[in-house]
Amino acid sequence: MPNHKIRLAVFCSGTGSNFKSLYKAIADRPLDAEIVLCLSNRSQCGAMEFARENGIAALHLSEKQFATYAEFVEAMLAALGRYRVEAIALAGYMRKVPQAVVSAYRDRMLNIHPALLPKFGGEGMYGIHVHTAVLAAGDTESGATVHLVSEEYDKGRIVLQERVPVLAGDTPETLAGRVLECEHRIYPAALEKLLLEIRTEKVR
Questions:
Q1: Is residue 1 part of a domain?
Q2: Of 4, 60, 113, 131, which one is the catalytic site residue?
Q3: What b/e string do you get for 5-18 counting C-beta neighbours within 10 Å, with b at 16 or more?
Q4: Angle at 180 between CA 176 and CA 183, to 5 degrees
Q5: Quick check: is 113 catalytic?
């Protein structure tokens, strides 16, 4: 009996450019996975629109929809269970993942960060803030890091990194563009590594 495709959820908050690169990689490589759910804290964003256009379930889930945080967490776990999600990729998800969800998907949840962790990570280090900090520090290189998600921001085991140079005259925006190209290269490769680890674990 052939292996089934590993069922993947992608968490997004914005345009979903890394979501799109993962979707394309799954179709082109092909990676032995299927994106079955796009979950977002925003009801309207590019990622949700892309999911709907491509027949992927799009779920808006925000703390504001619930009376308590516990109810929000319960609803997230229930949704992941309903879609039989086996692994999660964070792709520009601008909320901290609840601890119970991190625990449920231990070593099966990836995040991509636009810097060379452990530098320029932690709370508040996201988006253009990261590139501004890299330039302010005078670093000569930056890059992107894919890591496993743990209870602390950007502290999980590093799966893959790639470096890019910081060029003379760079602005946060120009550096961001170069790093984003790097992200689109390494995220599919990191996902491929995670899928292999999951399959190896299943065999044990």
A1: no
A2: 113
A3: bbbbbbbbbbebbb
A4: 140
A5: yes
Q: What is the CATH number of the domain that holds 110?
A: 3.40.50.170
Reply yes or no: is the peptide bond before residue 165 cis, omega within 30 of 0.
no
Q: Which two tokens stand for residue 180?
A: 């984003």
* Local confidence band at 45 (pLDDT 50, 70, 90 cut-offs): very high
Could you give the count of Cα atoms lying within 13 Å of 13 in the half-sphere of its Cβ? Answer: 11
Q: Is residue 50 included in any domain, yes or no?
A: yes
Side chain identity, residue 174: T
H helices of the chain, where?
17-28, 46-53, 69-82, 99-104, 128-137, 172-203
For the stretch 148-194, pLDDT in tens is 999 998 999 999 999 999 999 999 999 999 999 999 999 999 999 99
Q: How many domains does the chain have?
A: 1
Rounded CA-CA distance 78/71 in Å is 10
Residue 129 lies in a domain: yes
Length of the chain: 204
Residue 65 covered by a domain: yes
Q: Any idea what the Cα angle at residue 75 is, between residues 191 and 60, rounded to 5°? A: 65
Q: What is the pLDDT of residues 57-77, one digit of tens each?
A: 999 999 999 999 999 999 999
Domain, as residue range, for 155: 6-203
